[in-house]
Amino acid sequence: MSTIEERVKKIIIEQLGVKEEEVKSEASFENDLGADSLDTVELVMALEEEFETEIPDEEAEKIRTVQAAIDYVTNHAND
Amino acid sequence: MTTTMQGQVALVTGASRGIGKAIAQQLTQQGVKVIGTATSDSGAAAISDYLGDMGEGRQLDVTDAESVATVLKAIDESYGQLDILVNNAGITKDNLLMRLKDDDWDAVLDTNLKSVYRLCKAVMRGMMKRRHGRIINISSVVGTTGNPGQTNYCAAKAGLAGFTKALAQEIAARGITVNCVAPGFIDTDMTKSLTDDQKEAIFANIPASRLGQPEEVAAAVVFLASPGAAYITGETIHVNGGLAMV
Ligand SMILES: NC(=O)c1ccc[n+]([C@@H]2O[C@H](COP(=O)([O-])OP(=O)(O)OC[C@H]3O[C@@H](n4cnc5c(N)ncnc54)[C@H](OP(=O)(O)O)[C@@H]3O)[C@@H](O)[C@H]2O)c1
């Protein structure tokens, strides 16, 4: 079983079509990984599905970096 | 690009009569499975009857978020996809502005405009994931031209055009198109209450000199839903016998 960090990064790579080495913790989806606002919405959708959770809009808006995504999932994962 | 609509799934609101019924019927002729809605259970049953094995009727109140969620959940469970959303349900509550009641303003805006926000938002996720979707909103010629006694209805229908253009831009890159079909005066229950004098005055302004038929509106909807219309988005197709050329 992969760690949460690995799973989150894998989704980011798939969703944004970026290279593994670009997905650094501090990388911002929009500023560093070339995502537009709709890409980030889709990324959150993909995270919701992977981790079988619902991310409220207020929280989703704060997930703008790789680390923020990992932190959110880590703090809310039940498994 | 596929060239057939066979096997696609469509939701048509307000399919119990008039324009919505014609749209539902023409979509099934293209092999599309249709979920058509009415506000009553008996209306839904009548839709199930005319759709036969090409779909089903469901009770839906477009002003009720819970009702919208219930219908979309049922579609997801039974069909697993939704390719086409036709926002057709609509009402009029006409009066001169000076006599217009708050309730009539609210009801028309909620049923004709906010409903479209509600339904589009609810189907977005599935369409984005599948990188495919067609949203067709039934607006009206009076949303462009205005019409005395219909400030509420004209505001809602004009609002629909703005909504359509904005959403079209948001999601064009995901293979989803959003368009309007704007009927002129069509022969349905909505225009039955017009007096002969009113009709005569209207005909004087319609180059085609007659009311349109629901099927003539449905044909434009089916075109926008078809694979051939993939590059048309944010547009309004007017179906009005020449009443307004915009
Ligand atoms: N007829 C025209 O000349 C004309 C012109 C321009 C635009 N339009 C537009 O075309 C669309 C269809 O018009 P039409 O003439 O076919 O109307 P219609 O014959 O009066 O039918 C209206 C449909 O909307 C449904 N509906 C009403 N309120 C609803 C609600 N709260 N939730 C869900 N469904 C609801 C009705 O269901 P029930 O049967 O259960 O009541 C019915 O199926 C409307 O958006 C209308 O504004 C019509």
Automatic annotation (TrEMBL), chain A:
GO terms for biological process: Kdo2-lipid A biosynthetic process; lipid A biosynthetic process. This is Acyl carrier protein. InterPro entries: ACP (IPR003231), ACP-like_sf (IPR036736), PP-bd_ACP (IPR009081), Ppantetheine_attach_site (IPR006162). The lineage of its organism: Bacteria, Pseudomonadati, Pseudomonadota, Gammaproteobacteria, Alteromonadales. Signal peptide: none annotated. It comes from Pseudidiomarina piscicola. It is found in: Cytoplasm. Keywords: Cytoplasm, Fatty acid biosynthesis, Fatty acid metabolism, Lipid biosynthesis, Lipid metabolism, Phosphopantetheine, Phosphoprotein. Residues 2-77 form the Carrier domain. The modification O-(pantetheine 4'-phosphoryl)serine is found at residue 37. It comes from the Bacteria.
Automatic annotation (TrEMBL), chain B:
Keywords: Fatty acid biosynthesis, Fatty acid metabolism, Lipid biosynthesis, Lipid metabolism, NADP, Oxidoreductase. The active site is at residue 153. SMART domains: PKS_KR (SM00822). InterPro entries: 3oxo_ACP_reduc, KR_dom, NAD(P)-bd_dom_sf, Sc_DH/Rdtase_CS, SDR, SDR_fam. GO terms for molecular function: 3-oxoacyl-[acyl-carrier-protein] reductase (NADPH) activity; NAD binding. Residues 8-189 form the Ketoreductase domain. Its EC number is 1.1.1.100. It catalyses: a (3R)-hydroxyacyl-[ACP] + NADP(+) = a 3-oxoacyl-[ACP] + NADPH + H(+). NADP(+) binds at residues 14-17, 39, 88, 153-157, 186. The keyword Protein biosynthesis does not apply. Pathway: Lipid metabolism; fatty acid biosynthesis. Pfam families: adh_short_C2. It is an enzyme of class 1 (oxidoreductase). Belongs to the short-chain dehydrogenases/reductases (SDR) family. PANTHER family: 3-OXOACYL-(ACYL-CARRIER-PROTEIN) REDUCTASE, 3-OXOACYL-[ACYL-CARRIER-PROTEIN] REDUCTASE FABG. This is 3-oxoacyl-[acyl-carrier-protein] reductase. The gene is fabG_2.
